[in-house]
Amino acid sequence: MMNPSPTISVIVPARNEERRIGLCLEALAAQSYARESFDVIVVDNGSQDRTVAISQGFNEKLRLRILSSQHGTISALRNAGVNLSSGELLAFLDADCIPCTDWLQNAARIMFSGSAGIIGAHYSIPEDSTWVGKTWNTYQEACKVGDVSHVPAGDLFIPRSLFNSIGGFDETIQTNEDAELCERARAKGFPVRAYKELRVIHLGTAQTLAGFYRKQRWHGSHVFGVFLRELPRLRNVKAVAFAVYFGLWSLALLASIVFAVASGGWMIPLFPLAAIISLPTGMAIFFIARQRSRWADIWPLATLYLTYGFARAACLFHWPKKMSVGVTPTPNVPANP
Question: In whole angstroms, what is the distance from residue 288 CA to residue 199 CA?
């Protein structure tokens, strides 16, 4: 059990975040937690804008250090921030996230009340979000509380001792690093829990279909690589299975259209096949909307699921070459004890 008022180090990775880093640091400066009990480490990844200059403007409001660590993965940035920190509790916050005033206080209270694992929350969204942000958040993120498979690394707390014992973030992957870290913690018997009172507003929430597609494709870019690298353990198997399923559906639908145009008719075997393959997703969308009695959300949900599926299927054909496959790397072990 941790000290009821543990020292906390907040790690904020950033790159070209001049529009939002000030809002993030202002929210940290307004925390109800004692100023002398927490510090903030901004790890800048070669920003070409005013990110560093704006951050430096908070030197008198926060116990702040700024570290330049260019050309690394976001996992490497977070690990570098940990190496510079000294807090008993590590807090990871993204530069485009705005915590509430009691964010640190709530985290310390929850940790002291008995959680010795990883805690955090899935994001809240800006009030002026479009239907894209609101729909996806309502059905995919807002309801996730209690024991979960993972919490996003943009809003994640972990005791330093646990972070060190599991080796920190895996620096060989750019995305999926939060799920991978949480899985290693759970494999050692530590819980991963999400709490409403730890939610932060994610200013980077995708607000257009194009932005949503790009974000989901980026997030999924290392999911398949991690699966191949650790094939016997079937890590990410559900995510990969969905991507494969949707990839097959997309190919069947495309083939149906091509053959339909070539033959001058739609009554060909592949078109009914594509329709049959789409039934599980369609039924899932129907029951999700029915559960909340929000029938008007069926079409927005269908649009987002299609976009999500296309993005994740695309990752099967283009995943990062620099990622090691076949051998699980030894994650970075922070220097501080």
Answer: 23
